[in-house]
Amino acid sequence: MGGRNLLSRVSLIALLLGGNCLPAAAFAQDFVVPDATYPSLPKRAASAEGLVPAGWVLEAQVSGDLNGDGIPDLAFVVRQTDPRNVIDRPGMGESPFDTNPRILAVAFRSGAAGEYVLQLENHALIPRHENPSQDDPFENGIAIERGGLRVTLRLFMNAGGWNMFTATHTFRHRNGRFELIGYDRSSVHRASGETDDISVNYLVGRMRIASGHISSDKPTKVRQATLKRRAPLTIDAVGDGLDFDPER
Fold first, then answer.
1. Do residues 28 and 50 touch, judged by C-beta distance below 8 A?
2. Is 245 contained in some domain?
3. Residue 58 domain-assigned (yes or no)
4. Distances (CA, A) of 173 to 11, 77, 176, 212
5. Host domain of residue 102
6. How far, CA to CA in Å, does 169 sit from each of 68, 73, 78, 158?
7. Does residue 35 form part of some domain?
8. Dihedral of CA 191/239/175/143: which sign?
9. Per-residue confidence (pLDDT) for residue 93, from 0 to 100
């Protein structure tokens, strides 16, 4: 799908020099993350705000045509605001630590001046922030481009890991559901400086893997691969977006 390196080389060098990779245990005290409870979103409303359930807040929203009728639709993310999910952790690491879960949702507009009708509510793609040694994986990373819904996540460990990456999943509304049509991931190992950029086009079943080093924009090795034929993956089948394996 045309890979994008979402982190500039300058930013990566700064992270390489400044990344803290002490063992995660050095940061942590034992704590318990409360179980998440997910409400059903309202089925229709005149705006994104009307689709937000009580006790949740609208965190991000984008507008664009997702079903090909020429009318802008809505993609948005809501996050719970339950204070019981905000954990006080004095000492090293993030404190207070907000573990409130998120819901990714899509609503189609029924006519140019009609209501927004809910089409999708997904609890898994944007993982819950449960590790205090890891940065929040979601930073308003949703977009609508060329009829596709793009969701970008980030893995960065403040302790307990050297590898960091950004990953973008691209979905299109096909066959009455949202199917994965593209996956792009840019990663770097903060100790060695080695990089890997993966770009997958599920519509044609092809994957490109480019390996290199932070010191150069040019890859040292590029490999093309053909994916095994399989049924299209729905957004629910993808699961946790950070744990997704494009070759599974």
1. no
2. no
3. yes
4. 34, 18, 6, 34
5. 9-29+42-238
6. 20, 19, 18, 24
7. no
8. negative
9. 65
Main-chain phi, psi angles of 218, to 5 degrees: -95, 130
Does residue 247 lie within any of the structural domains? no
Please give the pLDDT value at position 162: 82
Output the pLDDT for position 14. 41
DSSP the chain: ------S-HHHHHHHHHH---B-GGGT-----PPPP--PPPPSEESSSGGGPPTTEEEEEEEEE-SSSSSS-EEEEEEEE--GGGEE---SSS-SSEE---EEEEEEEESSTTS-EEEEEEESSSS-----TTB--S-SS-EEEETTEEEEEEEE-BSBS--EEEEEEEEEEEETTEEEEEEEEEEEEETTT-EEEEEEEETTTTEEEEEEEETT-SS-SEEEEEEPPP-PPPBHHHH-STTT--TT-
- pLDDT of 45-98, one tens digit each? 999 999 999 999 999 999 999 999 999 999 999 999 999 999 887 555 677 899
Domain count within the chain: 1
